[in-house]
Design brief:
By secondary structure, this protein is mainly α. It has seven helices and two strands; from the N terminus they run αααααααββ. The chain has one domain. Helix 1 runs parallel beside helix 4.
């Protein structure tokens, strides 16, 4: 199964956003941080029940981590988030905050896999987020 960037299902898209928040934060961790949990993981249950409220909290908590990212990586994550948010088709804000359906897991894990894949660029294997 591959990430479907054309999928406009609300739950799928919120799952993708969760994966991006997790990756953006964890990519700033050093070896000394060990197995530290990200804010995305800590807020998972609340996020699934109230995704708009959870996203607002996560977005706010990402601010200090964005300062630690390389400018290219920061731009990459923000552009990806912007593209996903623009795809959410709900017009009613109250509907955006209703609990996610299980398909969010597909969005989360497929986006996570996409972000963690190594890619070949000019014959070199590099991290997906380091190519920016």
């Amino acid at each position: 199964m591959e990430l479907d960037s054309q999928n406009s299902d609300r739950s799928y898209l919120f799952g993708r956003l969760l994966a991006i928040a997790e990756k953006a934060e964890s990519s700033t961790y050093t070896d000394a941080d060990g197995g530290r949990e990200t804010n995305a993981i800590r807020l998972w249950s609340a996020y699934v029940q109230h995704p708009m409220h959870g996203w607002a909290i996560l977005k706010k908590q990402l601010i200090p981590y964005y300062g630690k990212l390389k400018p290219g990586s920061r731009y990459f994550y923000e552009k990806l988030i912007e593209e996903i948010v623009a795809t959410i088709e709900e017009n009613d804000a109250a509907q955006l905050n209703r609990p996610l359906e299980d398909v969010y897991l597909l969005g989360y894990y497929l986006q996570r896999r996409e972000l963690n894949q190594k890619k070949k660029v000019d014959g070199e294997t590099i991290d997906n987020t380091e190519e920016q």
